[in-house]
Design brief:
heterodimer; A: mainly beta; Immunoglobulin-like; B: Immunoglobulin-like; 7-stranded mixed beta sheet; 4-stranded antiparallel beta sheet; 11 strands
Chain lengths: 114, 116
């Protein structure tokens, strides 16, 4: 991967459990974004965290960012079957200019069993 | 759901055919993008545009071309399709916010292209 690598590649949990996905990147960033992709569909933006932020919440989602370790995590609490999807992190390089050329990670495939 | 549309959803064609993948958005976004995604793989940027008459090649080399004659329309063309072009093509758009590059991307549902 050019920039983001996600871990694990695949995760299977039971409904009601929490799911944690991790993203590591290589260069300095302006912000990091998380997206969800349902099978056969486009990506949907979930949450954006800026480089000067350490944690952000949105509903059942909690994102953390550690710029010293160049890593981020996405936590989905009380998961539901409808959360089954691939989750991608995407980074906006700090020195990429105003191009908004996000670099996507390899994704984590989450399966939530009912 | 974002207002960005891609057609067709699926396309199966023979080698050597010329094809155009359509992408339109009704949000008035200046920036538009084409990504290529193989199954289970990361997305690779192949083209982008900052506005009308502006197009740039992305990070992944592609034999396709794009045009941006209208703000809402960003079609991608393959002059002569080959089996190596088989992939999913995702179109996206985002707002221009001055020099900021924080804008989230809005994606279409993609075109799955198979070249036989």
């Amino acid at each position: 991967s050019q920039q983001g690598e996600e871990d694990p590649q695949a995760l299977s949990i039971q409904e009601g459990e929490n799911a944690t996905m991790n993203c590591s990147y290589k260069t300095s960033i302006n912000n990091l974004q998380w997206y969800r992709q349902n099978s056969g569909r486009g990506l949907v933006h979930l949450i954006l965290i800026r480089s000067n932020e350490r944690e952000k919440h949105s509903g059942r989602l909690r994102v953390t960012l550690d710029t010293s370790k160049k890593s981020s995590s996405l936590l989905i609490t009380a998961s539901r079957a409808a959360d089954t999807a691939s989750y991608f992190c995407a980074t906006a390089p700090l020195y990429g200019g105003a191009t908004n050329k996000l670099i996507f990670g390899t994704g984590t495939l989450l399966a939530v069993q009912p | 759901e974002a207002d960005i549309y891609q057609t067709p959803r699926y396309l199966v064609i023979g080698t050597g055919k010329k094809i155009t993948l359509e992408c339109s958005q009704t949000m008035g976004h200046d920036k538009m993008y084409w990504y290529q995604q193989d199954p289970g793989m990361e997305l690779h940027l192949i083209h982008y545009s900052y506005g009308v008459n502006s197009t740039e090649k992305g990070d992944l080399s592609s034999e396709s071309t794009v045009s941006r004659i209208r703000t809402e329309h960003f079609p991608l063309t393959l002059e002569s399709a080959r089996p190596s072009h088989t992939s999913q093509y995702l179109c996206a758009s985002s707002e221009r916010q001055g020099s900021s590059y924080n804008s989230p991307l809005h994606f279409g549902n993609g075109t799955r292209l198979t070249v036989t």
